[in-house]
Write a structure and sequence with these properties.
Layout: E1 2-6, E2 12-16, E3 22-26, H1 33-39
Parallel strand pairs: 1-3
Antiparallel strand pairs: 1-2
């Protein structure tokens, strides 16, 4: 089982099937704090 987590707000975006446990980081489309981090 794998998980994709938003790197700015740390909410779970999606789960996917994988042979081993995997955590990937991305930025969610609805995350307003990602704009704040990019401007700084």
């Amino acid at each position: 089982m794998g998980v994709i987590i938003c790197q700015t707000c740390e909410k779970t975006i999606e789960h996917f099937d994988e042979e081993k446990v995997t955590t990937l980081y991305a930025t969610c489309n609805t995350c307003t704090c990602s704009k704040d981090h990019k401007e700084k």
